[in-house]
Amino acid sequence: xxxxxxxxxxxxxxxxxxxxxxxxxxxxxxxxxxxxxxxxxxxxxxxxxxxxxxxxxxxxxxxxxxxxxxxxxxxxxxxxxxxxxxxxxxxxxxxxxxxxxxxxxxxxxxxxxxxxxxxxxxxxxxxxxxxxxxxxxxxxxxxxxxxxxxxxxxxxxxxxxxxxxxxxxxxxxxxxxxxxxxxxxxxxxxxxxxxxxxxxxxxxxxxxxxxxxxxxxxxxxxxxxxxxxxxxxxxxxxxxxxxxxxxxxxxxxxxxxxxxxxx
Amino acid sequence: xxxxxxxxxxxxxxxxxxxxxxxxxxxxxxxxxxxxxxxxxxxxxxxxxxxxxxxxxxxxxxxxxxxxxxxxxxxxxxxxxxxxxxxxxxxxxxxxxxxxxxxxxxxxxxxxxxxxxxxxxxxxxxxxxxxxxxxxxxxxxxxxxxxxxxxxxxxxxxxxxxxxxxxxxxxxxxxxxxxxxxxxxxxxxxxxxxxxxxxxxxxxxxxxxxxxxxxxxxxxxxxxxxxxxxxxxxxxxxxxxxxxxxxxxxxxxxxxxxxxxxxxxx
Lengths: 263, 266
Prior knowledge:
The complex is a heterodimer of chains A (263) and B (266).
Chain A: H1 2-16, H2 19-46, H3 55-68, H4 76-86, H5 89-94, H6 99-129, H7 138-169, H8 173-186, H9 198-206, H10 214-220, H11 227-262
Chain B: H1 3-18, H2 22-50, E1 52-53, E2 56-57, H3 58-79, H4 85-91, H5 95-99, H6 104-109, H7 117-134, H8 141-167, H9 169-172, H10 176-191, H11 199-208, H12 216-222, H13 239-260
Antiparallel strand pairs in B: 1-2
Helix pairs in contact in B: 2-3, 2-7, 3-7, 3-8, 8-13
């Protein structure tokens, strides 16, 4: 655990060097929050009944989604692709610690850094300028944090699997595009999944992506309550277990392959 | 060799080199197609639920989206690497542009052909054709001509904005952060009609970062949504002028930037 934090901390400090860059990123979040708020207000005035939730809940969902959008997709998949391409990956393999663990530590450091400089300021600005409401009660706030962390882990593992592809295909740019697009659609990042019709709604329900944005956001906005919260978190745990085992198994196979190539 | 010939020669070299990696070539195109399908899918989900967005119906929104992506694809195909300028400046490789006996701007522009953008162009053409049929539009020759001009202007506007952003690196060292902000405006204007947003936003995307001239204003005219009683109706015709204006500003800024340039020395 100490090792984990030392890697996480190291990456945190490495990122803090680019402060101005993050300031500009933070401003771009404001634009997105502004756009989202107007979109939902416009649609709501048009047909108040069609949402199934109140305008406050809808705006809270959308604005919060923009505030936390930078937390989920961290650098490790690209790091892995870079290391494979340049051949520097052997240095990572020489380190006396599990590679999977190392990536998780790097990613977590980056995520925590973004929480401090992007998400928390973003939420404050959202609260003062864009009608982002506080959670209705402490349970909603607490389970939001739990669901967020689980969603983060799901997202990390999807990214890790994507990064493992780099060992096979070297170039992951195009696949990453397709992956990001799918995730954007099915995670409920832009449009909450309860607005999805028929088959799309069904697909969104069974795919892992909804763990990422939809579950934490709808818990926060109070759309999911009581038993539904427990079921949603159970679903996240289930997918996390599946992705964790696949990652583990795949990494083992790839590791063996690399060694045999090198021998 | 004059500037134009040189530009196309550079582009030709770049195309030949990227054709070497065929699998990547195809994957790239599929990736872009998929990205658009998802984006349109999101708009589709919204509009099936709400039937329209303010007074824009689903096919009008498709038209708006397609007009933007068509202009963007032309820009992207030839010029998307202008954002690399900051890296050239930091690494000091910009010096080589100055040493060669040709305009540095032409050398920068002719760097790379982003073939993925062919997929965006296809999406744009398909979208506009479908919307044309579905909306039962009956355009005369003038309107077809205007569509053509609007697409060209759109790509020039994007080039102008992005070059200005890239040139800011001559003064600040980095332009990535600024382009990050500009990209947010692009994506909002690309997907939604700007009349759903507040006045501040509309002023910015009209006067400051004139992205709205890539799709919203020309679409108002092309889709007969222009209201001659409202102030500013004439903005619908202004895209070509905005494009010319931007070219002028870029020319001035580029000259200032070159005068200011001192190599990073590495």
